[in-house]
Amino acid sequence: MSWHLTVATIDAYLVGRVSDACAASTETHLMRCADCRALLADREHQDVAARRRHNDGLDRILDRIDQPRRGVFERLLVTVGVSASLARLTAGAPRLRHAWFAAGLSVLVVAVLLAQFSSGPVGAVLFVVTAPVAPVIGIALTYGRRADPAGEVGVVVPFPAFRLLLLRSVIVLASWLPPAALLAAALPDHGAVPLLWFVPALALTSLTVALSGYVGTVPAAAAVATGWLVVAAATVRGNRGSPAAVWLDHSQLFRPAGQVLLALLAVTATFVAVARRAAYDARETA
Amino acid sequence: MTTRLTAVSKRFGRTTALRGITMEVDRGVTGLLGANGAGKTTLLRIMATVLSPDEGELRLLGRNPRDAGDRLQIRRQLGYLPQQTGFYEGFTAYEFVDYVAILQEITGTRQRRSEVRRVLEAVGLTDQMHRHLRSMSGGQRQRVALAQSLLGRPRLLLLDEPTVGLDPLERIRFRQVVSELAREHTVVLSTHLTDDVAALCDQVVVLGHGEITFTGTVADLVTTAAGHVWLADMPDVAAAGWWRTGDGRYRHIGEPPRGARLAPPTVEDGYMYLTGRGT
């Protein structure tokens, strides 16, 4: 072969910027000339690489432009080291979360105010009994699978249902504990009373997560919360004049042995839930 | 065959939603036709692994959804548009699809973002991606829901009433997207719109009261009404199925009225003849 295609011609041919006649003669030459076929393959390879670089650059720019602004809670989670995708999953329904958070908080604030300004022990007792139920209700209202922001789509995704429930339960509990601890510190009672809600809160949350694998999150939370309130209401009692510690001491739930049993319940329920984690994916929604 | 149901039944309390369903679907688009309450949604929810059948065998993409490992593999290759997506309205379109993409385990932030943009572009929502779902029209929200089902180019795409709320242009775009995917993958769509079936489907399954009353190609469905569709100048009021057409003549399905001439059937005629509404 006495002549060869120039690099400029091959590049123009690759991007379709040659006349039909020129394309035809280029193709005729390529069929006969191995050197020019090799050059064409090489130029095409470079072209693809260049295009990929260009697309990558474009993707980076679009990433910057298209990224929606994260909410405060989502940003907070990312700041404390939670990955961006997990932050989105857990902070997925901020409005719902705010609703239950505000409702639960207002009950406890009322309890603390009662404790501060009334002479009886009602406020402190109310606080200790209701504080453990708040995270349970939070989990059910916002993060039950049926309340998933993606609706039924969220049921048939490969992301493990158990992992999602556990993540969200941890987030609910973690966002709940600091304000509850601060409010507990404002209770007028001294000694152990302001601490007595903590172990039950852990136990009820783990129990809800474990039972969710059998009956679904909402029925599990309803059963746990109702059961707790009924038992507490039936066992906590005292005279108007006696302090909150005496009222609570009437119930096994708030004595040292009861608290140890509740702690054991929390650990057992967590083990059961982890062992049965596959069951959370298998449960039907209807 | 990628997906096969054998004698599948499902009951809700005393109501039998599906009875003895046996069918196979493969590459291309299969349309599920049937009246409201015929069992289309239950069938799709079973195929989407939302529900498990009370009786019968189910193979999805060659796997058994009762097995936890298999079910996970199926879900990784599944796209699902439920009848009511019921998504959280505080999300923007981008945030919602991104949220589902995370649940779909599309790993790598850049890959996920690029995939989210691709599916939103496929349904024509690139310009609207940062609008909140609560401020979108019904058709736009339906497109967002459709976009999430296309994430990861699913091998099995299940669409429940996908064209509800879409205007004619949006429906044409929907058909483009679905027919493109169906060249290599399996798409099952439930609908009561015979237009969608005529435009898209290779295979049609007609459901009535939880049972399959017809299965075959679109041409087969049309053929069932051949010789039973009539055009007359006056309506035969005794006939159960007739209506006045745009050119002033009366279309009848079933027995011929006096002075009527045979007309070539459509998919709708086939469906109506089959379900006995026109006779």
Quick synopsis:
With 286 residues, chain A is mainly α. Chain A is 72% helix and 0% strand.
CATH T-level fold name of the largest domain in chain B = Rossmann fold
Largest sheet of chain B: 6 strands, mixed
How many discrete domains of chain A?
2
Range of strand content of chain A: under 5%
Mean pLDDT of chain B: 88
Looking at CATH, the homologous superfamily of the largest domain in chain B is P-loop containing nucleotide triphosphate hydrolases
Can you give the mean pLDDT of chain A? 80
Helix and strand element order of chain B: EEEHEHEHHHEHEHEEHEEEEH
Tell me which oligomeric state these chains represent.
heterodimer
The tally of strands of chain A reads: 0
Indicate the percent of residues in helices of chain A: over 70%
Q: For the largest sheet of chain B, list the strands in their spatial order.
A: 5-6-7-3-8-9
Overall morphology of chain B: globular
Task: Provide a count of the helices of chain B.
Answer: 9
What percent of the residues of chain B sit in helical stretches (DSSP H or I)?
25-40%
| Overall morphology of chain A | elongated
What is the element layout, followed by pairings?
The complex is a heterodimer of chains A (286) and B (279).
Chain A: H1 7-14, H2 20-32, H3 34-66, H4 72-79, H5 84-90, H6 94-117, H7 122-130, H8 133-143, H9 161-185, H10 198-215, H11 217-235, H12 244-249, H13 256-275, H14 279-282
Helix pairs in contact in A: 1-3, 4-5, 6-7, 6-8, 6-9, 8-9, 8-10, 8-11, 9-10, 10-11, 10-13
Chain B: E1 3-12, E2 15-25, E3 28-34, H1 40-47, E4 55-59, H2 68-76, E5 78-81, H3 93-103, H4 109-122, H5 138-149, E6 156-160, H6 168-182, E7 186-191, H7 194-200, E8 203-208, E9 211-217, H8 218-224, E10 229-232, E11 242-244, E12 250-253, E13 261-262, H9 267-275
Parallel strand pairs in B: 3-7, 3-8, 5-6, 6-7
Antiparallel strand pairs in B: 1-2, 1-4, 8-9, 10-12, 10-13, 11-12
Helix pairs in contact in B: 3-4, 3-5, 4-5, 8-9
Keywords (chain A): Membrane, Transmembrane, Transmembrane helix
Protein name (chain A): Zinc-finger domain-containing protein
Transmembrane segments (chain A): 98-118, 124-144, 165-186, 192-211, 218-236, 256-275
